[in-house]
Amino acid sequence: MRFTGTESYVATQDLTTAVNAAIVLERPLLVKGEPGTGKTVLAEEIARGLGAPLLTWNVKSTTKAQQGLYEYDAVSRLRDSQLGDPRVSEISNYIRRGKLWDAFTAPERPVLLIDEIDKADIEFPNDLLTELDRMEFHVYETGQTVRAARRPIVIITSNNEKELPDAFLRRCFFHYIKFPDAETLQRIVEVHYPGIKHRLMEEALRVFLEVREAPGLKKKPSTSELLDWLKLLVSEDIGPEELRERDPRRLIPPLHGALLKNEQDVSLFEKLAFMMRREGRGG
């Protein structure tokens, strides 16, 4: 079982190496990188490439580790007992299975995505250590032990909002997805827009990379935002000549709302345009 990428996902050599190392070691693959670099999509493509089912656990600030195992709905059981519902005699009727339970008991070896683990409380990763190590947990209400028939392929993503505990990091194989270079970006664009005109793609990539490198930028645009921007350029029939325009009044790229996501960054480019116009008058 080896991952080599898919037709719709450009995976670099170091990324495929990391994925396959985690599979061989049977350890979770912890993936970090800038937002929009394809961390979440990676799990989807691993599942597609390996022909495995995908289970996704979207972590929020309020998520607790226990929810990944199971939840016991005592309130519903109490209400049903007051109403005389016969289901109350079977406590398992009030056990809600979590994503880890589903992954452990899946008929085929699944890919389990634990997405954005750093959003949760700092204790969240530590609370999962035993379950991810032993691949089993105990259901106290019913007395049963849930064991994994086979270890799921676990992909964990993080945007680095919080530091993860050392004990948790030791149990993972780590990979940082670097922002793609120009050549890789071109391959990504060609995968998503196979019919795009080469000159338009070249000019768009040049402008996109210039925007990312602008000093003082608060939020650099991501790969996913580049793809959104290209879709708009094609839809609005904006050609490479317009992107090549050197007029300071046109310094902000057309349809820049797909790339610049806050007023500070828009203001930054407006100031740059003003400075260029003033320098032009002075010359």
From TrEMBL:
InterPro entries: AAA+_ATPase, ATPase_dyneun-rel_AAA, CbbQ/NirQ/NorQ/GpvN, P-loop_NTPase
Domain of life: Bacteria
Residue ranges annotated for the AAA+ ATPase domain, each copy included: 25-183
MF GO annotations: ATP binding; ATP hydrolysis activity
Pfam families: AAA_5 (PF07728)
PANTHER family: MOXR FAMILY PROTEIN (PTHR42759), REGULATORY PROTEIN-RELATED (PTHR42759:SF6)
Name of the protein this chain belongs to: ATPase AAA
Species the sequence originates in: Methylobacterium oxalidis
Biological classification of the source: Bacteria, Pseudomonadati, Pseudomonadota, Alphaproteobacteria, Hyphomicrobiales
